[in-house]
Amino acid sequence: MSRVTARRPTLRVTATGEVKRPDTLAVEEPLEIRLGGQSLTVTMRTPGSDIDLVHGFLLSENIIATADDIVSARYCAGTDENGRNTYNVLDVHLRSPVPVRPRAFLTTGACGLCGKTALDEVRARTRYPIPADGGTVGIAALTAMPESLRARQAVFDATGGLHAAGLFTPDGTLLAVREDIGRHNAVDKVLGWALRENRVPAHDLILIVSGRASFELVQKAVQAGVPMLGAVSAPSSLAVDLAADSGLTLVGFLRGATMNIYTGAHRITGIQQ
After folding, report:
1. pLDDT 10s digits, 32-65
2. Alpha helices in the chain (DSSP H)
3. CA pair distance 232, 119, nearest whole angstrom
4. How far apart are the C-alpha atoms of 149 and 209, rounded to whole Å?
5. What is the set of active-site residues?
């Protein structure tokens, strides 16, 4: 299977001079997802955990609800110029087939949905509503999670070019980490892991991401029933609106002992409200 890193020549320029040397880069390749042989979508991803990615993607698009909804997911034959399988096409067979409408997804950038229309759409599609009285997390455990996630980003250490997503228990135990060149793919991969481990609805888990929190990432968390999303960087305005509308706790700028709590502060203990 394709490696997650590749070497490319580079000319490095510094204050003390120039040197030619190879650099380690994150691999980016297309993954075509098919349903029953029909093309559904193509996403650019870092190879690895593709089965998890497909499970998470189909969950977030409301096509499946459990891992049992998928009968099989197999790579199709496809070769490069050297005759090797590219492992870039996955054909999924569902227990109950659904009509295939290529690229007709809420999460595509050109879908034309925005504001209240998008919020209503997500709320209407959610199979696992977030309980209003969900569990809590201590502020010390929460602030330690980004560092725990960072310590498990092996490919980022080699390339500096990948996003990460991790699922934690409220006591700070890191259950799973996935990396990808696309932040949405990293989240799909880790939520796909949870689905395959029968941890969805994920009402007892916390999702931490290494970058910003977009509308799309909040939508994916809501679809899996995750009650809390923490991001190292900033959320978007629509992400905050969706979190508030869905009852999700959204934390941004989660760095060291500092954070911004945008919604759902009642789930975080040890703070004065």
Report:
1. 999 999 999 999 999 999 999 999 999 998 899 9
2. 50-60, 115-125, 139-151, 154-159, 183-196, 215-223, 237-246
3. 24
4. 8
5. 111
